[in-house]
Design brief:
The complex is a heterodimer. Chain A has 5 helices and 3 strands. By secondary structure, chain A is of the alpha+beta class. In chain A, strands 1-3-2 form a 3-stranded antiparallel sheet. The longest helix of chain A is centred in the C-terminal third of the chain and has 25 residues. The termini of chain A are far apart. Chain B folds into 5 domains: 63 residues; 193 residues, no CATH class; 223 residues, no CATH class; 169 residues, no CATH class; 187 residues, no CATH class. In chain B, helix 5 runs antiparallel to helix 16, helix 13 runs parallel beside helix 16 and helix 18 crosses helix 26. In chain B, a hairpin with a 2-residue loop joins strand 8 and strand 9. Chain B is α+β, with helices and mostly antiparallel strands. The chains are: A alpha+beta, B alpha+beta.
Chain lengths: 125, 886
């Protein structure tokens, strides 16, 4: 599963939460443009400042699952180094899904933040 | 389908592989670009990637199985299972094919004759008036006078239309001439002007005639043809409208083509041409509607009028019309008639009148057979399921989904029923052809076309599904109800054996009982048929019958003597022809005319029927038909110009002379001063019905008085049909414009009269054999199962000194026990079935138990035969092995 190094010793519901999160991260990555599986992994890693490292054993099942759900679609193309690679790109449904996951994520992170730092959120309120 | 599915799966596998390879390549390149050593970079990339197989595996799981793929896997699984037991599969398919085929065949006939609606507007409003003498078949033929009376007085029909034919050969037809001299027979009738408007049939081209064309004073000479006639003869050429043709010597113009699919109202005789009724007198020389305008009637009920109300009113009108009739023979006949009315929504059909009841009975019978076949297949499947109980239990305890197992079992059943149905459709196709051949024998004009329409397809598909579910439900219940722990402990011994054994025994008993019933009916009818054939009074094989139509030759009847003699001489000169003759009528075609007669030396009793049936024949008539000449001599050509001579049959001799000598006695007919001298006596031959007691018949020499009829008969050496071409050549060679009307064989002519008997023999024989096969399979299955289960017991018995013979006797005894129970139940059933079947044909003597005893012996033989293999297997049980197994 997606294993952000910071939460290696997580809770029971970690998997569900993180699975959804990984999907969202992939969709988010692809919103910049078509990318192959390796590129998606690299982008998440570098975009998170090397904090989030996605294992291939999680990445590829997620990509194929998202494709089956119709949120992304794939095609074979040559990469910048003339390497044939399978590029994934967002579909219209994928874009809608990303938007809804984003707003859910915002709610969730705000809720968690207010729980973790009660003084700050009270101050804000 | 499999190819496509596997292709897709393989393609996706290769694609995933390439995706992973690309990933590794790009990771390696990145590392090299960062300055790592190429070999170290590759190894690091691999390490970072992790377990390649595991990644591919988890990714592949995401694809899931589509329901189609899952179905296909079930189908493959079922196919593998069926291929592993080819004997079971073959027997099951055979049973299902025969069962479903028989049902489909009978249903398609039922559908054609009874269910399919006519392609007209609101056919459900159609009724046909009928009348009949007591205990005789009803018929729909009314005189022109009666029709006019009904038209003027009824309040129940919105329209009442009439149809009449001018030429009859089973159905009615026209002689149609186009350009050439050859007249062609086209099925058709004259119909009243309200025919097309009442039916609501629309023209496909041109116009259809109506009441304005059917004016009695000045009929418009038009014809309407069917769409199929337009297609076959005119290749859908639009120039057909306005084309002039000659119909029975009268020029008419084709006005239009009826809507596609419309072939008239008579199912047995699809029609291609219709003319206005008012033209009928023009087509028949010297004809008039009063004399020739006998009509078949079909009425359309007014909205809101029921058939009962219509029947009541029309019965009254029928009586009134008879009462207004001038006194005479016709009035006497009509007074004895009973009036009836039936629905005509499916069209008119003589075949339906004849076969409706037998068909319904048959439908019930074949449904019962299919049920038995299903029960048998269910039994076999259950035995298979019992054998696989351990496997099922193991799979369930390993976490298999019960519903999934049930679905697998169901897939197997439906696969079997589907394949059985496909085979069954083939069986049905052949069956319908065979049935129609029997029904239509000797009547080339009978044309019933059981086209497989939506009804039949739906019926068959429903049947397939139903049978699949019916015998498939058992293994499904089995799969769902298996308790893993118990089944595993039982180690392959089925838990439901007692129920199964009782069920199996009941099944075999029922099959034996049913088969005995059917077989005894079949054998009774075989005996009956052979006694009919033996008592015909003529030899029915190797005789060709041909009828000439000399009306266009320009010769009068008497003038035909020379050319007809020449034709006969030329025919006799053919090497394949033993003898040739001509006559007014031929056996079982019908009696000739009747005339009241006075016989020398005989005093009529008061009130006695004085008529004799007469037949005008040429010399060698009796030789040709194989009717024995018992005394005196045959006719010769030298009789011409001499005193009138006659030959009589035995029935006449018995009646008038007893043991006295008829030769030289004279017979005088009322209204004919010159008497006939009896010169010969022949055996009794049947003329009206093969089952009748022959009446008194007198034969005259056709050449002596120039009373020449045009029915030629030839006794041949080889197959009669081989002479047909020679006859055609010789007849048209001698008489240029003569048309050959009808060629058939005496055998066909006889068989056409025995259709119900032959149908019952064929069907009850076939279904009886099928029932016996079912019983044999059931017996075999039951015993094989019981021997397998009792192998320990048998082993112990043998160890304790039982002989092989004793063991075999035990197994055979078990089989005989079940069979005898079936026979005890079957005997009354057979008795009842014979009575029921006897009700369907006239004059059937139902007596003697020979048929039942014969079929009982047959069934016992079948049971012993089925028990042979299990019995042999039982005697081969090795006591040591059986005991060690325990």
């Amino acid at each position: 599963m997606a294993t952000p190094m910071v939460t290696r010793d997580g809770y029971k519901n970690r998997i569900e939460l993180l699975q959804g999160t990984l999907d969202m991260l992939i969709l988010q990555t692809l919103s910049w443009g078509p990318e192959h599986g390796y590129g998606v992994g690299q982008a998440i890693r570098s975009g998170s400042g090397e904090v989030l490292q996605v294992e291939t054993g999680s990445l590829y099942p997620a990509l194929h699952r998202l494709e089956k759900q119709g949120w992304i679609r794939s095609e074979w193309r040559a990469s910048e180094h003339n390497q044939r690679a399978k590029y994934y790109q967002l579909t219209a449904a994928g874009k809608r899904q990303l938007a809804s996951e984003q707003s859910r994520w915002n709610q969730l992170s705000a809720a968690i933040a207010s729980l973790m730092n009660p003084s700050e959120s009270e101050g804000q309120a | 389908m499999s190819k496509w599915l596997w292709f897709r799966r393989g393609y996706r596998d290769r694609e995933l592989d390439e995706e992973i390879r690309a990933h590794l390549a790009m990771a390696t390149r990145d590392r090299i670009e960062r300055g790592e050593d190429p070999r170290a970079a590759e190894a690091a990339a691999r390490r970072e990637f992790g377990n390649r197989t595991l990644v591919a595996e988890t990714t592949r799981e995401m694809w899931g199985w589509s329901s189609l793929e899952r179905l296909w896997r079930d189908v493959c699984y079922a196919l593998r299972g069926l291929r592993r037991s080819p004997g079971f599969t073959a027997v099951t398919l055979l049973l299902l094919a025969l069962g479903i085929g028989a049902n489909t065949a009978i249903f398609s006939l039922v559908n054609t004759l009874m269910l399919r609606r006519l392609p007209v507007e609101h056919p459900e409003q159609f009724v046909e008036p009928l009348h009949r003498f007591q205990d005789e078949p009803h018929f729909n033929t009314f005189s022109w006078r009666q029709y006019q009376y009904f038209l003027a007085h009824n309040h129940v029909f919105s329209a009442l239309t009439g149809m009449s034919g001018i030429n009859y050969d089973f159905g009615s037809f026209f002689h149609v001439r186009d350009r050439g001299p050859e007249a062609e027979r086209v099925n058709g009738t004259c119909v009243t002007g309200n025919f097309f408007p009442m039916l609501g049939v629309k023209p496909a081209l041109g116009r259809l005639f109506g009441p304005e064309d059917d004016r009695l004073s000045a009929p418009v000479p038009v014809a309407v043809v069917s769409w199929s006639y337009w297609k076959d003869r005119f290749n859908l050429d639009h120039a057909i409208v306005g084309k002039r043709i000659v119909v029975d010597g009268f020029p008419v113009t084709i006005a239009g083509v009826a809507a596609r699919g419309f072939r008239g109202l008579i199912l047995d005789n699809p029609q291609d041409m219709w003319l206005p009724e008012a033209m009928l007198p023009s087509l028949v020389p010297g004809g008039s509607l009063e004399k020739n305008g006998n009509v078949m009637l079909v009425g359309r009920l007014k909205p809101g009028v029921g058939i009962g109300q219509a029947r009541a009113e029309m019965a009254v009108l029928f009586r009134q019309a008879v009462a207004e009739q001038p006194a005479g023979r016709e009035k006497m006949f009509l007074s004895a008639m009973q009036f009836e009315m039936e629905s005509a929504s499916a069209g008119l059909s003589v075949a339906r009148d004849q076969f409706a009841r037998p068909l319904i009975l048959l439908m019930g019978l074949v449904a019962l057979l299919l049920l038995l076949a299903c029960a048998n297949v269910a039994g076999m499947l259950a035995a298979r399921a019992a054998a696989r109980q351990r496997e099922l239990a193991l799979r369930i305890s390993l976490g298999a989904d019960r519903w999934r197992l049930a679905r697998q079992a169901l897939t197997e059943s439906l696969l079997l029923s589907g394949a059985g149905t496909l085979l069954g459709v083939g069986v049905a196709y052949l069956g319908v052809i065979a049935l129609l051949r029997i029904v239509a024998s000797g009547r080339d004009r009978l044309q019933i076309h059981p086209v497989p329409d939506a009804h039949v397809l739906l019926f068959t598909a429903g049947l397939a599904l139903l049978t699949g579910l019916l015998f498939g439900i058992w293994p499904v219940l089995h799969a769902c109800g298996t308790a893993p722990a118990a089944a595993l402990r039982e180690a392959g011994k089925g838990g439901d054996t007692r129920f199964r054994r009782h069920f199996g025994k009941a099944l075999v008993t029922a099959q034996v009982a049913l088969s005995v019933g059917l077989l005894s009916v079949a054998s009774m009818f075989i005996l009956h048929l052979s006694s009919i054939y033996a008592g015909l009074g003529f030899e029915r094989d190797h005789v060709l019958l041909a009828t000439l139509d000399p009306s266009r030759t320009g010769y009068s009847r008497a003038q035909l003597a020379r050319p007809y003699q020449e034709i006969l001489e030329r025919l006799r000169a053919l090497p394949q022809v033993r003898s040739a003759t001509l006559s007014g009528t031929t056996p079982v075609l019908g009696a000739g005319a009747n005339r009241d007669a006075t016989v020398e030396g005989y005093q009529d009793k008061p009130g006695e029927l004085r008529y004799l049936a007469e037949n005008w024949v040429a010399p060698k008539y009796f030789e040709t038909f194989g009717t024995p000449l018992l005394r005196g001599r045959d006719f010769t050509l030298q009789d011409e110009g001499g005193p009138r001579v006659a030959i009589v049959n035995q029935a006449m001799v018995r009646h008038y002379f007893g043991d006295g000598d008829p030769l030289g006695k004279h017979v005088k007919f009322d209204g004919d001063p010159k008497p006939y001298e009896i010169v010969g006596v022949v055996g009794d031959a049947k003329y009206i019905d093969p089952r009748e007691t022959p009446g008194r018949i007198i034969y005259f020499n056709a050449f002596q008085e120039g009373r020449l009829f045009s029915r030629f008969s030839m006794r041949t050496r080889g197959a009669p049909a081989a002479v047909a071409g020679d006859f055609r050549r010789i007849a048209t060679g001698v008489l240029k414009n003569a048309a050959v009307e009808r060629i058939t064989t005496l055998e066909d002519q006889v068989d056409a009269n025995l259709v119900p008997e032959r149908l019952i023999v064929t069907l009850s024989g076939l279904f009886g054999a099928l029932g016996a096969l079912l019983a044999a399979i059931g017996t075999y299955g039951l015993l094989a199962y019981s021997v397998a289960r009792r192998s320990n017991e048998i082993g112990i018995r043998m160890a304790l000194g039982a002989t092989r013979r004793g063991i075999a006797r035990m197994v055979l005894g078990e089989s005989l026990g079940t069979t005898c129970t079936g026979l005890v139940i079957g005997a009354p059933l057979a008795y009842w079935a014979r009575r029921a079947a006897a009700g369907l044909v006239p004059d059937l003597p139902v007596k003697g138990a020979a048929a039942i005893v014969f079929s009982a012996i047959m069934m016992i033989l079948v049971a012993l035969l089925a028990a042979y293999i299990p019995a042999r297997r039982a005697t081969r049980v090795d006591p040591m092995e059986a005991l060690r197994y325990e």
